[in-house]
């Protein structure tokens, strides 16, 4: 199936353009929930998800939350790890590279002085992220790294994708 999708995109670049969406709603305290359902793919709107996928976010007790779900910066690490893993597995499959096991972990350094507005010189988010991927395979590590580097999330984080922000009041 993945090879078939790749062939469609090779044949028609428009087929490979996507729009993914998430809608978030504040529940209470530091807790909120995102619903993810429809998306645009293959030149049309995709309605294959009959129900929204739900992702909750909270903060640990230390940051005033109820500790019921990962916080947003932990979700970011999850997104990075899972994208690197999925990307490696996908590209290895397409290229016939045998994988026996893949495990990805990450750790980010964050100084809350920026988030709390205590310091204007401290970044609000991660100052650095370290990713460690452990792969059991006969392939060389440089080949596996090249495959993993196709990760969209890795590229977005590494190159700071532009983000437009707007706010309305009611």
Rg from C-alpha positions?
Answer: 19 Å
Widest beta sheet: strand line-up: 1-4-5
Proportion in β-strands: 25-35%
What overall form do the CA principal axes indicate? globular
Mean pLDDT value: 92
**How many runs of DSSP E, i.e. beta strands?**
8
Which blocks of ≥5 consecutive residues have pLDDT under 50?
none
Q: Please summarize the sheet with the most strands.
A: 3 strands, antiparallel
Q: What's the total helix number? A: 5
The residue fraction in helices comes out at 25-40%
- Write down the secondary-structure element order: HEEEEEEHEHEHH
> Which structural class fits the helix and strand makeup?
alpha+beta
N- to C-terminal distance:
46 Å
Which features does this protein show?
170 residues, alpha+beta, three-stranded antiparallel β-sheet, 5 helices, 8 strands, 32% helix, 29% strand, globular
Written account of the structure:
- It is a single chain.
- The termini are far apart.
- With 170 residues, the chain is an alpha+beta fold.
- The protein has helices at residues 2-11, 72-95, 112-115, 141-148, 152-159; strands at 19-20, 23-28, 31-36, 39-41, 44-46, 53-57, 99-110, 126-137.
- The chain is globular, with a radius of gyration of 19 Å.
- The model has no long low-confidence stretch (mean pLDDT 92).
């Amino acid at each position: 199936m993945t090879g078939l999708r790749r062939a469609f995109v090779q044949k028609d670049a428009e087929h490979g353009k996507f729009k993914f969406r998430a809608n978030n709603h504040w529940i209470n305290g530091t807790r909120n929930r995102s619903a993810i359902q429809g998306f645009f793919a293959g030149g049309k709107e995709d309605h294959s998800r009959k129900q929204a996928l739900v992702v909750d976010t909270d903060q640990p007790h230390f940051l005033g939350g109820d500790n019921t779900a990962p916080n947003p910066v932990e979700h970011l690490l999850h997104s990075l790890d899972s994208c690197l893993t999925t990307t490696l597995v996908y590209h290895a499959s397409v290229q016939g590279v045998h994988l026996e096991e893949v495990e990805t972990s990450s750790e980010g350094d964050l100084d809350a002085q920026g988030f709390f507005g205590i310091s204007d010189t401290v970044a609000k988010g991660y100052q650095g992220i370290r990713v460690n991927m452990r792969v059991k395979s006969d392939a060389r590590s440089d080949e596996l790294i090249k495959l993993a580097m196709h990760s969209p999330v890795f590229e977005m984080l590494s190159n700071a994708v532009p983000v437009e922000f707007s706010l309305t009041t009611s």
